[in-house]
Structures are given as C-alpha cells and as structure tokens.
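Its record is set out here:
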Amino acid sequence: MTNLQNQKQPDKRESPLLILLFFLTLLFPANAKEVYDLKHCLETGLKKNYDLLIIRNEQQISDNNLTWGNAGFLPTLDFNAGYSGALNNTTQEYADGSNVKNAGKLNQETNLGLNVSWTIFDGLYMQTNYQRLKEFQKMGELNTRLVVENLICDITAEYYNYVYQNLRLANLKYAVSLSKERLRIVKARYNIGSMSRLDLQQARVDFNADSSNLIKQHEVVYTSRITLNRMMALEEVSQDVVAQDTLIAPNPSLEEKELRNNMHQSNIRLLLSVKNQVVGELDYKALKSRNYPYLKLNAGYGYTRVTDNLGLTYGLTLGFNIFDGFNRRREQKNAKLAVQNRQLQYEQLELSLKADLANMWMAYKNNLKLINLESENVDAAHENYEIAIERYRLGELSGIELREAQNSLLGAEERLLQAQYNTKLCEISLMQISGQATSYLD
C-alpha cells in the first residue's frame, strides 16, 4: 500500500470529522480480533453453514430411501385380530301353535390371522424402481457437492471483498492524511499571510470530503464483515475478524483448454443434468412395465373361534390390464417426450456454460492486463504526487493542481485494486464453472 514517508506531523486541531472518526474507532474496536485466512473461513463455513447442514440431511433421506423394500421387492406381512358379538332376542313358532322365546342370546366371533402379500413379477417395475432410487441417491450426493461448491465460491468471493474493502479503507485513510498535510501547510501560510482564506477553506473542504468518504467506507467494511460471518454461521455475527491476506493476488496461470475439459468432466450442474436424463429414461421404462402382466402371491394363516378353524390359506393372482382408456399409451408418449426435453435441457445448459466460460475467460485475461497497466500508473502517480507536494511546499504549485495530483494517485490505486478484485472474481467463476472450486481448500 502506498504511504508517504517522513512526513511532518500535522496540526491536531482539525475538522469535527476527526472527532467522528475517533468515535468510529470505538464502534469498531481493535481488540478481540481473530485473524482468519481463506482456508479457515472455508472450513468454518463447511462445518456450520445452515444451507449445507440442510442439504446433508436431504442427502441422508435419499440414502435412507435406497432399500429393496422401498423398491417393492420384499413382501408385506400384516397381523389382524378381531372380535364381534351380537345380543339377540328370538322367538321360534312351531306348527302346533307353540313357540319358544330366547331372550338375551349372545353370539360371539373371534379371529386372529397373519397375511402375506408378495408381488413376484410386475413387468420389471421393481427392478426399474430400484435403479431410480440409486440415481436419486447419486443426485443427492451431487446436490450436496453443488451446495458445497457454491458455498466455497461465495465465501471466497466475500473474503476477498472484505480484503478489498479493507484495502480501500487504507487508501482512504491515506487520502485523509494527504489532505491533512495540505491543510497544515495552508494554515501555516495563511497565518503568515502568504495564502488567502479561499485557499484555506478549499483545503478544509477537500479534507472534509476525504474524511466523509472514510466514514462511509467504515460502514462498507462492517457490512462485508457481517456478511462473511453470516456465511460462516458464526454465533456472534458481528464478531470482529481480520483477514490474513493484505493484498489480492489472482492466479495468473489458468489455462482455457484445461478449464473447458474440466467443465465437461466435473461441472456439477452438467452431471446433475445427466442424472436427470437417466431418471427420465427410467420413468419411461417404469411406465412400459404396465404393458406386461403381473403375478402376486397371497397367503394367510389364522384362527376363527366360531368354527374353531385354524389353518393356512394361499393363492396366486395373475392379472393383466387389457384396456384403460388409452391412458397407458398417453403416459408413455409423454414420458418419451420428457426424455427428449431433458436431453435438450442438457445441451442448453452445456451451451450456456460454454458461453459463461468464454465471457469469464475474456474478462479474466483483460483484467490481468489491467493489473499490469494500473501497477505502472500507481508508480507514476505516486512519483507525480511527491513532486507536486514538494512544489506546493515551495509555493510553486496551486492547491487545485495539488488536489488533482492527489486524486490521480488515489484514482490509480483504486483502479489497481478494482482490477485485482475483478480478476479474482473472474478466477472464482472460472473455477466454479470448471468444477474446481474445492481447490480453494488446498
């Protein structure tokens, strides 16, 4: 970071904005700070982030669903027991005119039983359903990986945004120190009558403007810190942290061909789209199973008290749907069209990712060039300012010209920081598109 060396200490009696800056240091204390590097932020987020905890539970659900019983292979066994009773008053009349009355006669029935139902064949639907459950399990794993990669990229981007905003804060502090030195010089000359009150007021206005920008930047840094803490799911979301990195260093050695190859092999969204195609084909296959007959085994073992029967019952049911109002045919046609749509969606996604990769690659290369250019500009602007401030001290340069040199220096520093940050964002996007986001954990 650019800093003036060997400057004279300016006068302490300055604008009330300095008092406000002092109170800001109380609001954002320097104590109780933890130093976080990127890896620590990522590991903390991957351990605590709520989105990731939720998707891991959903993955566990898809793992639990992968069973032979859920696919329909296993029989079902039911136990039943029943009791019924009837209290009747009856009158029996005979041919000779006599009758017999029975009052309060109780009839009771008790039964116990076990019933087994087992589908032996259903047109390969069970086998197809088991394959679908396997694919859903794999999709659960891929969805978890997708959330992990998104979280890694989001935390990485916000971490470097936090670094970027802190660097901007340092630049703005430097701007305030430059304006303060200028104000000190003007005050000294004003007191001896070599500068006008207009010069003094202009220097004060510029100093106040730079102080105002610094105050606003404190808020931006604070917001970025809160966002980073929220992504890491820290219990104390306002916890003060210090980024270990003091500069933004993009990786300048990415290769477009390698990124493109990795995209086809490792991009999670593409892999999920492939799984969607497989599931669509299995859905179609499951519907086709209705074209075949089904065979079911039924068996029971029970006891009935009324007749004192205890025994085994069993049977086979063979069935085949002959006509269902053409619904089966319609559903199979729709399923086949759904398979075609999923293939088209894959091709659409692939084309979109290629376009994103091409755009990000161009932005990445251009920003690398801008970093080199703006680095030269910062060196030139710094030298220019050093010359300007010396001439200003000697009275050979106006305040407006000094301010212009100061703005040129700060503008060059800001453009360099912006180019570095933009390059890092492009790099993160390229790593995400190519399915290499987890490399930031290394």
Summary: The chain has one domain: 17-441. The mean pLDDT is 88. The first strand starts at residue 34 and ends at 36.
